[in-house]
Structure formats: C-alpha cells, structure tokens
Amino acid sequence: MRTHLITGAGSGIGAAVAERLAARGDQLWLFARNAGRAKELAARFPGARTLVGDLAEPERLSWALSHQELPDWLDSLLHVAGVFELGNVGDLTPKIWNQQLAVNLVAPAELTRLLLPQLRLAQGQVVFVNSGAGLRTSPQWSAYAASKHGLKALADALRGEESGNGVRVTTVYPGRTATPMQRKVHQQEGREYDPERWMNAESVATTVVTALDLPRDAEITDLSVRPRG
User: Which one is catalytic: 31, 45, 84, 144?
Assistant: First the structure.
C-alpha cells in the first residue's frame, strides 16, 4: 500500500486518479479548499484522510497545514487542481492573472515545498497534471497558459534539484478531456460542448498511474496524452 496526496480530487481528472488509487487499496490524503468540501471527499472516498487549505491563498498554506496532522510519508504528491479564465490580454485584470497564477503555479510550488521532507523520506514522486497549454498557447489563453508554462518550469527545476534525494518528478500534459472544466471552457469559447469528442478523465488517470508504477530504475519526465482523431 502506497500513500498519495491529491489536489483536485473532487471532480474530473483528480477524481478519476483518486478512484483508481483507492480501488487498489492505496492510502489517500485528499486536499480540500474548506471543511465542507473535505467532508464531501471523505464521504466519497471511505478511508481517505483530508487536509484543508485554500490553493487560492498559497501564502496561508503553511499556517493551515501547521494546524493539521500531516502524513509522515508520501509516495506521491499529485497536483491536479487548477482554475482558468479566458480573455484577451487587453481585457484581463490583475485579479484574474493573480488568481490563475496562485492556484495553478504558486500553490503547487508551496505545497511541494511543505511536503518535501515526506517525499524525500519515501523517495517519492511529484506529478504535475499540466495541460497542452503548458507547451503552446492560443489567443485568449494567455493567463492560463502562462501559469501552465510556469508549472513546467517548476517541474523541470524541481527534478534537477531533487534527483539526488531519489524524488522523481513527472509532468503530464493532457489535451482536451471531458470534465466539468472542459464544459466551462466551451462556454467561454462560445462553442457547443460534446464530451464524446474528447478523452475520458479515466484515460488521463491511466497515464498518471502508469508514471507512478514505473519501476524505480526509470523516470517518466514529460508525457503528453491527446484525444484520438
């Protein structure tokens, strides 16, 4: 049995990953933005532990975690949570930029920093579920893509810094996936949403679990997964 901490387990890819790991008997620690959300996650995943902290306020995560029991060993830290807001550069306010940078980039950096002792002890793995927008971008995607490009840089730097401690670092770049977030993306793009056109969240979860289960003599550093067709 391995121990995993997952952000974004309430829906979409994060929920699919949590379900896969729970089904095989692994211990889950699920990160929730408030106590109500933590209660929902605990009911959905019996036996899972929860931690509460607001990723939109990364500067408060250290304080929040200092008041809670933490795992003393982590085989993996899975960063799946994310937010987005589309818009032209000429229309995006600092508030919108800061929100996406906080949740998508600064919070993963801070949560990783706070949990590195447990990851080093286990010679564990950090997985960043990024986005195709972390490799390329399009009009109206500037703020989200910037946060995801930054997340790639964070992963690449972390990999070099922690390789001597036995910590593996993987970035997964999913293409469009049939999730509640994708429905919202289509709404903002003004397009009809057809989930049949896109990957299932379970397909991305398979990619993540494959990276986790790779034998210790190897490391998947970057992995892109796209819808067929």
Answer: 144
φ and ψ of 131, to 5 deg: -170, 160
Per-residue pLDDT for 201 more than 90?
Answer: no
pLDDT, tens only, 148-172: 999 999 999 999 999 999 999 999 9
What pLDDT digit, counting tens, does each position of 46-88 carry?
999 999 999 999 999 999 999 999 999 999 999 999 998 899 9
Retrieve residue 222's tokens. Answer: 């970057």
- Measured CA to CA, the distance from residue 197 to residue 168 in angstroms comes to 33
Which tokens is 145 given?
């893509």
Task: For residue 144, indicate whether it is catalytic.
Answer: yes
Residue 6 φ/ψ, nearest 5 degrees:
-125, 130
Pairing of strands 49-52, 27-32: parallel
CA angle 41, 46, 49 (to 5 degrees): 60
Q: In this model, does residue 223 exceed pLDDT 90?
A: yes
Alpha helices, DSSP H, located in 131-192:
142-162, 180-189
How distant, in Å, are the alpha carbons of 13, 130, 185 from that of 176?
A: 11, 12, 10
Alpha helices in 102-228 (DSSP H): 107-122, 142-162, 180-189, 201-213
**Which residues lie across from 172 on neighbouring strands?**
129, 223
Number of separate helices (H) and strands (E) present in the chain: 8, 7
